[in-house]
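Hello again, I could really use a second opinion on something today. I've been puzzling over a protein and I'd love to understand its fold better. I'm sending you its amino acid sequence along with the backbone structure tokens. It would help a lot if you went through both lines with me. I've dropped the whole record in just underneath, so have a look.
***
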Amino acid sequence: MIRDFSTSNAPALHATALAWLSGEHGEPAPLRPAATVMIVRDASDDESGNSGGSPVEVFLLRRVASMAFAPSTIVFPGGGVDPRDSAELPWAGPGVLEWSVRLGADEEATRKLVVAAVREVFEECGVLFASADEDGPLVEVSSPQWQQVRAGLVARELSLSDVLREHGLCLRTDLLRAHAHWVTPVCEPRRFDTRFFVALMPAGRAIDGATSEADHAGWFDPASVLADYAAGSAVVLPPTLVCLEDLAASPSAAEFFAQEPVIRRIMPELVVNDAGEAVMRTDFAGTKAPRG
């Protein structure tokens, strides 16, 4: 299946696309590995105002307008792999080899991606997918002491390995699922090779979105975000858009988490369509056809 995504609703992307098409560019930027996480829960009408929309909600951030990559854009928590993510750490759940098969990456790259996913969620959302044993409750990290630890990670003074070892915790990889693999188009000045993960919001834990990279965060009905995108009032890039479409069609958070989608590397191609519009043409061959 071939699908075109308009660039016109994302001003920064549209400007970049037009510059690229006019020949104002050099060589494509190098790719940086990255991980992002869809944190989901069954819909409720107490916090998000979702009363009758999608049966599932997702935690989203809106990136600040000053960000060099994807400014003012609706995103899932996540970010680039960091050199700290290569450190050995206590690991519970599917091992690195099993995850490498799921992600289609070598074991070293896989370790970094899974660790980055967990680290970024803690840094940006205040939820840490780690526990004292392999099937125990997740560690409670709302105390001032844990917020200092979180700040140390954000400042790159600590690695996740440092944190887990000091507190006698193990990384809970069983609480993550692989969902998709997208690569930033060659026209973008900053490019990422991103794995998309899914995690259920853990019961009894708080999530806050307290990150300097976002000016708004919270629980959203994916169908409402898609409607805002269609109306031109929300900036959503193709990878997030397709994941939100998948989520909006799911009957429950648990069923979405349990899915085992076909994962293939997808990189949109910037082209001019028959109407003369700059679009991101995306080939979904070999994957479950997205909606829309």
In short: The chain has eight helices and 14 strands. Residues 12 and 70 are 7 Å apart (CA to CA).
